[in-house]
Amino acid sequence: MTTQETINQFGKYVIANYGRLPRVIVKGQGCYLYDADGREILDLFPGWAVSGIGHCHPKVVEAVRKQVGELIHIDNTFYSEPQGQLAQMLSERAFGGKCFFCNSGAEANEGALKLARLHTEKGKYKFITAQGSFHGRTFATVTATAQPKYHEGFMPMLPGFQYVPFNDINALKAAFDDEVAAVMVEPIQGEGGINEATPAYLEAIRDLCDQSGALMILDEVQTGVGRTGKWFAYQHYDVEPDIMTMAKALGGGMAIGAMMARDKVAASLVPGKHASTFGGNNVACAAGIAVIEAIEEGGLLDKAAEIGQYTQDRLLALREKFPIIQSVRGRGLMIGAQLSVPGGAIVSECLERGLRLNCTQDTVLRVMPPMIAEKEHIDKAMEILQGVLGDMDS
Ligand SMILES: *Cc1c(COP(=O)(O)O)cnc(C)c1O
Questions:
Q1: pTM summary value
Q2: Cα 237 to averaged position of ligand 1 atoms, centre (Å)
Q3: Is residue 27 annotated as a catalytic residue, yes or no?
Q4: Is CATH 3.40.640.10 the classification given to domain 58-297?
Q5: Which of 45, 50, 161, 232 is the most buried if burial means most Cβ atoms within 10 Å?
Q6: Ligand 1: does its nearest atom lie under 6 Å from the Cβ of 190?
Q7: Is 134 a catalytic residue?
Q8: DSSP label at residue 360
Q9: Atom of ligand 1 at shortest distance to CA of 48?
Q10: Of the CATH numbers 3.10.120.10, 3.60.60.10, 3.40.50.300, 3.90.1150.10, which one belongs to the domain with range 299-393?
Q11: pLDDT digits (tens, 9 = 90+) for 195-246
Q12: Helices 81-93 + 282-297 axis angle, to 10
């Protein structure tokens, strides 16, 4: 099939709810994508942060192949080895909690919100989230997503949610009362434009929750599983959450989400209260195990920190030449370059020249290389980006 034939087929049969780039991707390997016309694309935003250790990592491919041949799916009526093993591996690399598995970030957050209401005492029902957040597209999680553009056309949102400006401790205190069941935030807002929580802010959330018996939920769907140079972004701070959610990079490309809760909190989720048919799927869990092993065997946490810093330095150097780059921020391989102009045209032109980046919040160039990226990949990307910025200048 030609690219045009595939695009026509989508036009006729696939709901057009995504703004798609006019390329058909047929293969991915490491830092690279290949389209149906044989073009190679350096991918520094692989799978919307899903392919955190690159496309088709050999360890993931091998684990999935092996598991598919043994048992693809077994329902949660039974026990299964990959699910238990992945839960242990995650728990040991985080705060020692227990896991509930599902298939996406939104579902993990949905589970977290339900668990917070279930666990906290009667009369606590409110959720506080931060402006600019992104927590998913289901009704509860899109309500939690404190950005009006995602609510448009879907009103009314779920009751019980309150929004506060991110990193504003006074606003948080003002919004807090005894009816709050949980505060949910991202340690670094991803879709919201790569905005890092300040240490004081996360500590204030922790203190307020401790004082009132509310729960602190960290949405690590985008930050988790190594991207920031630690297993989870909260580990850069001096706090631990009560509940943490993850998804995106966890399955190395397979669909999986997880909610981890402290033992005491997890105990409230008894049979009948929450479930997911596909949750904890053998193949997805086998992939998750392989991802964790690959990160450890490759020393990829340290590498994420190192290559991330290198990328930020290269972007800062570009800022000297191109003042439309106003600032560069982020941690590890989660990087944003604040532009003074919309970034859509830059992203399109980079793609034309074989580089895939992302733009969020209209003016934030989002660069999220996979953890296997080497300096040479970053150098190549910066060369392309510099060419694009130079041509736009003239
Ligand atoms: C992507 C994302 C989600 C939603 O995940 P889905 O798998 O698309 O449901 C939730 N929270 C954050 C921080 C995200 O980046």
A1: 0.98
A2: 22
A3: no
A4: yes
A5: 232
A6: yes
A7: yes
A8: E
A9: 1
A10: 3.90.1150.10
A11: 999 999 999 999 999 999 999 999 999 999 999 999 999 999 999 999 999 9
A12: 40
